[in-house]
Structures are given as structure tokens and as C-alpha cells.
């Protein structure tokens, strides 16, 4: 009788723990990045009333007779399944699709989280709502990111200035009509000096008497002053197939900061309309730019947008995976701590090494299933009630035993 009472007490404790876990899951049904937990039971040691025996000659074997001594919580496991997506439109909200955790630093401790709701602090650090700093790789001055280097605090350098770049080249591409019109084809492009000052240059192409020959002239678009060509004549001649000969040399101009090479290889002379125009290339330079905003690509690269129309990488988010994520220890604030059985964090870029991809302007919500949790509540409640009835029944039997003397 006492065994039944103590077994029932262990059942009360175990089912109370199951209720606690279910209650915590339901409380966090709308917590960003929350991962629900499940309670796993196992029986405790059993008392042997009679040992079993193996068959011996003509004697049959017997099974052991054992009485269980109750139940205990074997473990509380975390479900790391993907949560639903909530679009927010905020540039600093990031969501992981697939495996991986954001790496954050709280003081001197590295923490890991699936909650991607970040903000900027007073100096531009990307931080969690409780102040932990998001970790990743900061881009160099030229925008390159070394993902093999150590990770550190990610910062959005508000007001950062992108130095101007002098123009060393641009291209003229498109079609010059073979229909025979002598109407000049004009376009305009800006070339930049070392200080980032823009100098608008007009380009005029006019068909000549020769069937396939065009003149090309360059001038200051404001004053009309011709811009001298330093290396090639101001004419181009197309082949019979409407393309320029393979050895067509580029035109070189005397630019505001040195020679400017004009690439002509994308020009054609077909029967269509005139749409040839000056076009920017990688060598077209730029004015000074000031950081105005940022966005996130699927590989975790934070791309800054500058006032001069250019974009450049500011850094890249780091993601961590674990051999056994179930071994992580919950550290509060929707974060996890790398405990002994989780293994060492494997840190790398999104989309590599089995890590998931990233999306900006969205958050991963809790993966708690309310229908499942309410069902679990009913099961836990019934288990608790049944064990309490065992205690009251055992108590009544003990009371009857005490009253036998009467």
C-alpha cells in the first residue's frame, strides 16, 4: 500500500512537470523564435518480489515478479522545427529558413538565438531587444568580406562616406541604324574627377557619306567645348555584317582626371532604330556617397545604399550550427547557451555547410501548436487526477487497516 502511495506521488510530480512545460509553451505561443518543449517520462527502478529462473532439464523457467516504484521525468526535449513566417517590412528583422542560429554576444558570453528582431543602438550596433550584439564579419574598405576571419560586432556606420572615384572609362553601346538617316544620335554621361565633381559630357554620332562610317564627337554638355580625343580618330567603320571589326581600338579622351577610355565593342549597325548611347561601366567612377540605408541578401550580406547610387557590402551575418542542438541550454531572452552535449558551434555564412538562408523584413514565429498543447494539457490533467485517486484509495485502505482492531 505504501508503494502505491509513493508511486502515485511520483506520478503527481511528473504530471505537474508536464503541465509546467505545456503552460510555458502556451505562454510563448507568440514569442519570436520560440521553440516548444515536450516532456518525456520513464519508469523508475522496480522492486523484485521473485527472481526469474532459466529452464533446467525438465523444469520450466519462470519470469521475475517485479513491482514498479513510480515514474520520473526522463527529459524535456526541445522541438527545433521551423516556425511560421511573419512579414514585418523592417530592414533589421531577419529570419532563418532552415538550420542555424544567430550568434550574439552579451558581455563576454556568446549566445545563440533564432529570434531575428534586431535594432540599432546609439553607435549603430545591431542588437537584440535585451542588448546583446549581433555577430558577423565586417567588410573592408573596398566592401570585401573575409568569412574565414574572426567574427565581431556588426555595425551599420550611419553617415559613412564613400570616397569619390575618378572616371577612367565608359562605353558606347546599342544600335546605329543602317537605314541611312543623317540625323545625329546624341546622349550624355557624367565623368568624375578625383574629388568626385561631375563633368557632363555629350556624345554625338553622325552617319557619314561612307555607307558604314560614323563620326563620333565629344563635348562639354554645358559649355559645348569639344573634349579632345588623344589616341584615335573620331570615326568608326562597321563591317558588312553590321558589327565592328575585331581589332576596333577604343577611343581615348582627355578626361578631367587623366585619360578616359571609351569602349565601342557593344555598338552595332543593323536595320533597327537608333538607340545607341553612352553607358556606365565598372570604370565610370562616382561622386562622393553618404550611407542612406541598408538591406540584407539571402547569404547574410548587409548591403549599404549610398547617396551616389552605389551599393557596397558593409558586413555579413554569421550563423552557427550544432551537432546536437537539443543539447543547448536555454539562457532566457529567447537565447541558448552552448552546453556540453550540444557540441562546439560550427560558425559560417548562411547557405553553406548545411546552414539555412536568410530573409530580411520577416521574423520566425513560435513553433508551438496550440491544438497539440491543449491536448497535452488534458492528458496531463487526467494523469494528475488518476494519480491523486491512487493516493486517496491507498489512504482509505490504510484507514480500514487501522480500524480493524475496532
Automatic annotation (TrEMBL):
Coiled coil: none annotated. Gene3D superfamilies: Flagellar hook protein FlgE. The keyword Repressor does not apply. Residues 95-159 form the Flagellar hook protein FlgE/F/G-like D1 domain. It is found in: Bacterial flagellum basal body. It comes from the Bacteria. GO terms for biological process: bacterial-type flagellum-dependent swarming motility. GO terms for cellular component: bacterial-type flagellum basal body; bacterial-type flagellum hook; cytosol. It holds the Pfam family Flg_bb_rod. Residues 185-276 form the Flagellar hook protein FlgE D2 domain. Residues 7-35 form the Flagellar basal body rod protein N-terminal domain. Residues 360-404 form the Flagellar basal-body/hook protein C-terminal domain. Keywords: Bacterial flagellum, Cell projection, Cilium, Flagellum. Belongs to the flagella basal body rod proteins family. A flexible structure which links the flagellar filament to the drive apparatus in the basal body. PANTHER family: FLAGELLAR HOOK PROTEIN FLGE (PTHR30435:SF1), FLAGELLAR PROTEIN (PTHR30435). This is Flagellar hook protein FlgE. It comes from Modestobacter muralis.
Amino acid at each position: 500500500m505504501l508503494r502505491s502511495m509513493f508511486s502515485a506521488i511520483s506520478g503527481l510530480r511528473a504530471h505537474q512537470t508536464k503541465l509546467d512545460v505545456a503552460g510555458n509553451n502556451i505562454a510563448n505561443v507568440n514569442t519570436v523564435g520560440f521553440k516548444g518543449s515536450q516532456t518525456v517520462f520513464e519508469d523508475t527502478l522496480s522492486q523484485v518480489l521473485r527472481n526469474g529462473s532459466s529452464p533446467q532439464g525438465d523444469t520450466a523457467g519462470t519470469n521475475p515478479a517485479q513491482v514498479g516504484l513510480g515514474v520520473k521525468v526522463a527529459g524535456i526535449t526541445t522541438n527545433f522545427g521551423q516556425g511560421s513566417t511573419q512579414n514585418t517590412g523592417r530592414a533589421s528583422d531577419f529570419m532563418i529558413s532552415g538550420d542555424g542560429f544567430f550568434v550574439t554576444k552579451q558581455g563576454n558570453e556568446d549566445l545563440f538565438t533564432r529570434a531575428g528582431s534586431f535594432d540599432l543602438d546609439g553607435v549603430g550596433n545591431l542588437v537584440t531587444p535585451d542588448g546583446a550584439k549581433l555577430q558577423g564579419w565586417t567588410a573592408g574598405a573596398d566592401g570585401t568580406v573575409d568569412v574565414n576571419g574572426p567574427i565581431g560586432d556588426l555595425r551599420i556606420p550611419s553617415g559613412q562616406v564613400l570616397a569619390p572615384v575618378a572616371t577612367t572609362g565608359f562605353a558606347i553601346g546599342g544600335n546605329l541604324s543602317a537605314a541611312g538617316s543623317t540625323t545625329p544620335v546624341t546622349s550624355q554621361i557624367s565623368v568624375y574627377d578625383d574629388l568626385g565633381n561631375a563633368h557632363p559630357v555629350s556624345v554625338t554620332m553622325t552617319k557619314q557619306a561612307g555607307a558604314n562610317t560614323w563620326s563620333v564627337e565629344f563635348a562639354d554638355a554645358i559649355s559645348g567645348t569639344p573634349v579632345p580625343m588623344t589616341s584615335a580618330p573620331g570615326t568608326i567603320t562597321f563591317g558588312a555584317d553590321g558589327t565592328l571589326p575585331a581589332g576596333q581600338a577604343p577611343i581615348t579622351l582627355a578626361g578631367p582626371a587623366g585619360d578616359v577610355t571609351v569602349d565601342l565593342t557593344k555598338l552595332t549597325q543593323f536595320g533597327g532604330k537608333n538607340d545607341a548611347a553612352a553607358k556606365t561601366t565598372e570604370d565610370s567612377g562616382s561622386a562622393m556617397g553618404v550611407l542612406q540605408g541598408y538591406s540584407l541578401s539571402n547569404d547574410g550580406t548587409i548591403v549599404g545604399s549610398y547617396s551616389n547610387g552605389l551599393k557596397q557590402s558593409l558586413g555579413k551575418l554569421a550563423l552557427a550550427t550544432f551537432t546536437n542542438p537539443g543539447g543547448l541550454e536555454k539562457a532566457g531572452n529567447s537565447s541558448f547557451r552552448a552546453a556540453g552535449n550540444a557540441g562546439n558551434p560550427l560558425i559560417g555564412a548562411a547557405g553553406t555547410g548545411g546552414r539555412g538562408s536568410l530573409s530580411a523584413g520577416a521574423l520566425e514565429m513560435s513553433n508551438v501548436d496550440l491544438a497539440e498543447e491543449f491536448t497535452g494539457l488534458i492528458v496531463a490533467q487526467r494523469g494528475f487526477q488518476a494519480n491523486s485517486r491512487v493516493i486517496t484509495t491507498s489512504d482509505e485502505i490504510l484507514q480500514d487497516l487501522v480500524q480493524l482492531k475496532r
